[in-house]
């Protein structure tokens, strides 16, 4: 008897176990009904969509409100176009609501708990992008479907590529941070008809993340822009329009994007700074050198090439001007002025070749002992000396004549032009008369042949001594003009270097 009872228990246990296994395998699978197979999920979808009107809100009473919960998540920052002020991004938009018309009894459909329906055949929230930058609506990246559960809950997760307007300020290029806003809202339903909240209902703000830790997909970083903090801020607000008494719910996503500046730092900013510091170096080139003007023109040409490269990175038709463009313009203006100033200084340096002496006021201001050359740390310079200049100067000094002063025309003494002209005989007469032995008899009064030779020799000596004195005075005058140009170059170097530092500090 006991053995029979044990066998009966085993048989019941096996039967119950097989029934459970069979019921789990047959959930949603076809069964026989009236001699034909019945596919429960197919029948359920036909039942749900039969007579369904997608234009009607999923409410039982007209005064009821559809509660829609949303959540946003960034997939990738696609682009930020400076020329058109357009921000492109790919986002997930999780939308959850309840549709009473999509409920069913699990027991009638083989225990089917969830089905997937085309989003185009049921009512879905009409959240649209308000600040769209293109005429066509945002396009989905795949065929959209919704997930419906037996209690009427609907989950829709479209992934969209959005093109929104984003007014940009390029003043701080390439270290700029742009703030773009993506504004969503219902196009037809007020907040009384469709109430939009975040999935975390207790907050009016939420973070929109772009992080692999918070998502199940691989995040692709944009090569030029990065999302500050890898997250954006979404905020719910109510907006009331003149057309309607009830307010509309708006969802504003604020996105801060920082430009990756490494490439532009070495391509545009670095060369601009190097070229800017080369502008005052133009005035360190000797004024008589022909390469001085050529150097400045090469700087202008290089700046033009760099501005063409900058134009490819930043469109010049944009409403805001980057400060680096102002720096380029300022550097070009300084370079142009330096070329003009170099030509003027070169012209000043050759005035000595025109037998023009340095004016007394310029000599005292720039070349004197207490003049600017002393403050600019430029060493003193002396008059030009040659093989005979010391003897000539000694004899001239004994006679009360200062050859170095001939080029300046001080007092009643002859000028450089007078020395080269008729004044040459005045100098030689004074030198020879003072070097004579005190005899009052002129060699020209002697009638002897020897005295005539000495008279001719005296004329030749007069000419040679006068020529040497004139050349010495001319070279001294020429040297003074060159020293004047050197002092002016040093002043311009300091001035242009200060202007470059000021411009770079203000604009870079």
UniProtKB/TrEMBL annotation:
Predominant cellular place of this UniProt entry's protein: membrane
Gene3D superfamilies in UniProt: Neurotransmitter-gated ion-channel ligand-binding domain, Neurotransmitter-gated ion-channel transmembrane domain
CDD domains: LGIC_ECD_cation (cd18989)
InterPro entries documented for this protein: Neur_chan_lig-bd (IPR006202), Neur_chan_lig-bd_sf (IPR036734), Neur_channel (IPR006201), Neuro-gated_channel_TM_sf (IPR036719), Neuro_actylchol_rec (IPR038050), Neurotrans-gated_channel_TM (IPR006029), Neurotransmitter_ion_chnl_CS (IPR018000)
Pfam families: Neur_chan_LBD, Neur_chan_memb
Regions that span the bilayer: 263-285, 297-314, 326-350, 491-507
Signal peptide segment: 1-28
Membrane topology value: Multi-pass membrane protein
Alphabetized UniProt keyword annotations: Ion channel, Ion transport, Membrane, Signal, Transmembrane, Transmembrane helix, Transport
Keyword Membrane assigned: yes
Domain annotation Neurotransmitter-gated ion-channel ligand-binding: ranges: 41-260
Protein name: Neuronal acetylcholine receptor subunit alpha-10-like isoform X1
Gene source species: Aplysia californica (California sea hare)
Gene (UniProt): LOC101853242
């Amino acid at each position: 008897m006991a053995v029979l009872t044990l066998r009966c228990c085993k048989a019941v246990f096996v039967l119950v176990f097989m029934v459970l296994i069979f019921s789990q395998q047959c959930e949603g699978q076809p069964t026989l009904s009236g001699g034909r197979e019945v596919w429960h999920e197919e029948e359920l979808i036909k039942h749900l969509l039969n007579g369904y009107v997608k234009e009607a809100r999923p409410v039982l009473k007209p005064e009821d409100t559809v509660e829609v919960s949303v959540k946003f998540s960034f997939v990738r920052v696609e682009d930020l176009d400076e020329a058109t002020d357009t921000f492109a991004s790919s986002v997930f938009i999780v939308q959850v609501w309840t549709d009473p018309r999509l409920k069913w009894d699990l027991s009638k459909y083989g225990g089917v708990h969830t089905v997937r329906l085309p989003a185009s055949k049921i009512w879905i929230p009409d959240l649209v992008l308000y600040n769209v930058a293109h005429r066509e609506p945002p396009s989905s990246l795949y065929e959209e479907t919704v997930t419906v559960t037996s209690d009427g809950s609907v989950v829709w997760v479209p992934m969209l590529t959005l093109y929104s307007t984003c007014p940009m300020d390029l003043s701080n290029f390439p270290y700029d941070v742009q703030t773009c806003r993506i504004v969503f809202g219902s196009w037809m339903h007020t907040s009384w008809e469709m109430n939009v909240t975040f999935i975390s209902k207790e907050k009016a703000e939420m973070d929109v993340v772009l992080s692999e830790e918070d998502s199940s997909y691989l995040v692709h970083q944009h090569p030029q822009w990065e999302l500050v903090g890898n997250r954006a801020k979404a905020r719910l607000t109510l907006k009331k329009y003149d057309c309607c008494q009830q307010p509309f719910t708006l969802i504003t996503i604020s996105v801060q994007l920082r430009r990756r500046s490494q490439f532009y730092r070495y391509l545009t900013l670095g060369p601009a700074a190097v070229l800017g510091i080369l502008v005052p170096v133009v005035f360190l080139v000797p004024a008589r050198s022909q390469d001085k003007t050529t150097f400045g023109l090469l700087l202008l040409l290089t700046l033009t090439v760099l501005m063409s490269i900058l134009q490819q990175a930043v469109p010049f038709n944009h409403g805001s001007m980057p400060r680096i463009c102002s720096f380029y313009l300022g550097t070009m203006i300084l370079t142009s002025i330096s070329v003009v100033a170099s030509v003027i200084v070169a012209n000043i340096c050759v005035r000595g070749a025109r037998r023009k002496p340095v004016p007394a006021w310029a000599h005292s201001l720039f070349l004197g002992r207490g003049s600017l050359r002393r403050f600019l740390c430029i060493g003193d310079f002396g008059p030009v000396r040659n093989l005979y200049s010391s003897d000539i100067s000694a004899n001239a000094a004994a006679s009360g004549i200062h050859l170095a002063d001939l080029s300046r025309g001080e007092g009643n003494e002859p000028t450089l032009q007078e020395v080269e002209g008729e004044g040459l005989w005045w100098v030689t007469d004074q030198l020879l008369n003072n070097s004579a032995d005190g005899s009052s008899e002129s060699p020209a009064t002697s009638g002897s042949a020897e005295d005539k030779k000495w008279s001719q020799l005296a004329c030749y000596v007069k000419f040679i001594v006068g020529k040497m004195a004139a050349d010495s005075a001319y070279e001294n005058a020429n040297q003074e003009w060159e020293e004047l140009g050197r002092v002016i170059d040093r002043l311009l170097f300091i001035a242009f270097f200060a202007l470059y530092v000021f411009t770079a500090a203000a604009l870079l």
